[in-house]
Amino acid sequence: MSYGSLVSIPSPWDARSADGGADGVAATLGRIREAVERVVEGKDDVVRTALVVLLAEGHLLVEDVPGVGKTMLAKTLARATGVSVRRVQFTPDLLPSDLTGVSIYDAEARRFDFKPGPVFAHVVVGDEINRASPKTQSALLECMGERTVTVDGTTHTLARPFMVVATQNPAEMEGTYPLPEAQRDRFMARVSMGYPSPASEMAMLANHGARDPLSDLEPVSEPGELRRAIAAAASVHASPAVQQYLLDLVTATRSHPAISLGASPRASLHLLRAARAVAAIEGRGHVLPDDVQGLVVPVLAHRLVLSSEAAAVRRTPEDVLAELLQRVPVPSASRV
Fold it and tell me: Which of 11, 174, 221, 305 has the highest local Cβ count within 10 Å?
């Protein structure tokens, strides 16, 4: 059932917020979307998911083969938001301290001074994250989960907003390490770029063939504006019926015979926050079941581990989630 016809919904990128304010969520995210799509052409769904994750204060995993624009998406999103950005190229010899920072002894002052690492930025672009060792990958667990960094017994708080946009090549490619389950679970959503359509690739050749597509991109927001939009999205109402529907979907992944490791409670929280962000972007003050359904695959699929029997017959997490969406009852309109 579609709930879009039950309420008056403005265009997804209408320049009005749910309360009509000029600095509302839709206006802020609309400007960012337009800026990103001038560089990342023909990937509207991917850009939209990235903006949902940004608004929900989550982290984004971008997975695909080399050369399809994974790093470009991350860098463009960071540039358009007008926040501080640090990029890390993950390599096999990268150390955890290269990410978090290190304490260096100052002989003259006779004390240790902390030198912050690249995670002390609003947006951290982790390029080819699965080329680093699991030990280095794990250095991001505290940053992503708690937005703090502990070095030599001292805990440092990271800036808000804080978002990790990590790119990775498929796990079977040479020189890659699969991400641990604990780290995958900290990414709110995973997207795949895919190859562009012939028309989009032709436009890319015409527009970007002779210059850097980022060279003319100017920031269209600033951290304070982005923080206000994030706070507004977090206040969007989700009825008990919608929350129960969301929980039923997540719980169903834990008992399905094709899944050996289902979605965690953190996945439930991420799905709810992302659904609130979608509603805010669309100018609504409440979440619909449609919002949840549209996010099930990007938010849950990368967290699931299939059973050996399901893997043997080449089932995918996306197949199982599609089955669950058909099976789990949707709440009636009167309860939403």
Answer: 221
Q: Are residues 104 and 12 part of one domain?
A: no
Q: Are residues 210 and 85 in the same domain?
A: yes
Q: Sign of torsion, CA 228 229 230 235?
A: positive
Residue 164: predicted pLDDT: 93
Nearest partner of 200 among 46, 1, 27, 28, judged by Cα:
46
At how many degrees (to 10) do helices 240-255 and 265-281 cross?
140
Domain span at residue 302 reads 1-18+236-336
Tokens of 230: 């994030």
Cβ atoms < 10 Å from Cβ of 103: 15
Report how many domains make up the chain: 2
- How far apart are the C-alpha atoms of 17 and 27, rounded to whole Å? 7
Q: Highest mean pLDDT: which of 109-113, 195-199, 290-294?
A: 290-294
Which residue pairs from 242-246 have beta carbons closer than 8 angstroms and sit at least 24 positions apart in sequence? Answer: 242/275, 242/287, 242/288, 242/289, 242/292, 242/331, 242/336, 243/272, 244/331, 245/289, 245/292, 245/328, 245/329, 245/330, 245/331, 246/271, 246/272, 246/275, 246/292
